[in-house]
Amino acid sequence: xxxxxxxxxxxxxxxFAEGDPLRLRSGAELHDxxxxxxxxxxxxxxxDNAIFVCHALTGDAHAAGLRMGEKRRGxxxxxxxxxxxxxxxRFFVISANLLGGCSGTTGPxxxxxxxxxxxxxxxxxxxxxxxxxxxxxxxxxxxxxxLYAAVGGSLxxxxxxxxxxxxxxxxxxxxxxxASSQLSTENIAFSTVARQAIMGDPDYREGRYREHGVRPDxxxxxxxxxxxxTYVSPEALATKFGRRRTTVGEQMEMAPDFEVEHYLQxxxxxxLGRFDALSYLALSRLLDYFDPFxxxxxxxxxxxTSTRFQVTSFDSDWRFSTAQSQRxxxxxxxxxxxxxxxxxxxxxxxxxxxxxxxGYHDRVRSFVG
Amino acid sequence: xxxxxxxxxxxxxxxFAEGDPLRLRSGAELHDxxxxxxxxxxxxxxxDNAIFVCHALTGDAHAAGLRMGEKRRGxxxxxxxxxxxxxxxRFFVISANLLGGCSGTTGPxxxxxxxxxxxxxxxxxxxxxxxxxxxxxxxxxxxxxxLYAAVGGSLxxxxxxxxxxxxxxxxxxxxxxxASSQLSTENIAFSTVARQAIMGDPDYREGRYREHGVRPDxxxxxxxxxxxxTYVSPEALATKFGRRRTTVGEQMEMAPDFEVEHYLQxxxxxxLGRFDALSYLALSRLLDYFDPFxxxxxxxxxxxTSTRFQVTSFDSDWRFSTAQSQRxxxxxxxxxxxxxxxxxxxxxxxxxxxxxxxGYHDRVRSFVG
Lengths: 369, 369
Prior knowledge:
Two copies of one chain form a homodimer.
Chain A: E1 7-8, E2 11-15, E3 22-23, E4 29-30, E5 33-40, E6 50-54, E7 66-67, E8 80-81, E9 86-87, E10 92-96, H1 128-141, E11 147-153, H2 155-166, E12 171-177, H3 185-199, H4 217-231, H5 234-241, H6 259-271, H7 277-289, H8 296-303, E13 308-314, H9 322-334, E14 338-344, H10 360-368
Parallel strand pairs in A: 1-7, 6-10, 6-11, 8-9, 11-12, 12-13, 13-14
Antiparallel strand pairs in A: 2-5, 3-4, 5-10
Helix pairs in contact in A: 1-2, 3-4, 3-7, 4-6
């Protein structure tokens, strides 16, 4: 059986040649930036039907469909495809791995063309605008001047917001889901514990673990297990696992026994090897500093934008709560931007943006419509 | 200036002689169990004015006053003392370190009299009833048959509840603050991440770190930093630290920069050396399994008790939430137990039980009164 999208393929672009480098907000420069991306559907002759999909912290370019030889569909396959809310029969969908990542786009483990060796811990710190700059260049290289829509959840939604702040003329519709315009103190607190777990792992070796043939797996596992708790709601954990355990009665053991412990162990182990520690650090730090409304240029940009926003939060999301979405909405409206906001009900916490909660897909469909 | 309590002193009892061992709920036995305790005030001639104070996970026997040569008052000095809610002019207050701890009472780093070496990871897993059994014996050794009150917050509150279930005739008033009768799935999830951080630390050495002259400091630091987030409310973190940082404008760094990061680093570092990893594991595991209402004996015990309960929760406590206290109250009332319950308003999260929130001390005072 053929998948409605046909098999999809991850492609590769090299942007920002040596004489035309990517100038980061920090002042550092990168050239020969690779970008891994996928496209679904066909670009219209006038180029007016392109939708850019922005992934979350540990996502990648493979948002939809099936790649040859693989069994697992893209991470947003329920949202993107023929007849789906982001309908590939109508739209030309672009999904790209982000700068600093580890799934095909230039990041800390990529080779620095200047040295021929991996950047490692010398990879520059990134601003969300740098991520946007790479994707803007990619979009231009694909012949798209203006996006029909940019869509993203979590970090992806924050990228969408930054994109509008940086190039308001380029996005007609901005769909921001389960995101924030500024991390809360508690968000930063969890981030810093994750970084302590990773950077304090003796196998981190000051970020040069790959040169030493090791990996800070223990730190990454702890970081992922902890992060996972923040991705789901306490109610969802209780419903799914309760206090079920393997031992009975008054038996006890120190090793994992309750089902939720086995589940988190599995989440932690499955992360290892799939994601690079330096990318995790780079992207978590980028999120901590993300604060587009603190930037004087934002007010000016938003004053002249005609971009329409749809902002959506989920009531059980305690990582990027409804209050955080509401603040973003107020900030946008204060700059005269049109925003359609709703809090949806879903028991699944932050992860809701990847699932099909009642009303969620219809809401995206009608706005993108 | 002399402290109203005078200098206090930590004392030491040895209980459960070899021929009369402590039989744990697991079937294991311990003998020559040491207990570190302090007392404040005077026992009345009839022995009817004793109040037992139960400490939380990382607490100790030093609840009030000043020990000679030290600058830091006991952890509940605002609650216990002359004229304070637990008034040492009227009551004989006993505070003891708990079994499995590392502050003077027998725990994993104590010498096993059978081998002359520390128990280490061979220390038996503990049930909350085992903790209670040691303190019951201590109380008896001090000439107290029946407690005027038992008072505790967090794990201490859970110990109070267990004590009533195990020896309902022994406690006249039970004061349970910021506690739970059963950990939630999310509570267990955070516990298991902490254990992964500690037991996965290469310096854990399967629990024999002391023999190797090392300590799993990295794991303990991560565990403590994460736990600390759950002890405070997101609102308190935001009020206290906001997004203040050392760098300015678009400067960024990977090392701790935001004030909340420095704060958590400090919390983590201050914990090292102060608390033993095996004790932390033992007590966190004891909490996971704590479930007194699943015990058939509890119904029988509560049916014949005349103990009156005061249960208090704080609205911003998300570690042991009001919903958890309410469930405990319903369970107690279903067994015919008299309970005075209130949720108090405090912005400080779980830590509120250690602070002086409006109405809190008066509430305890009037119940103990």
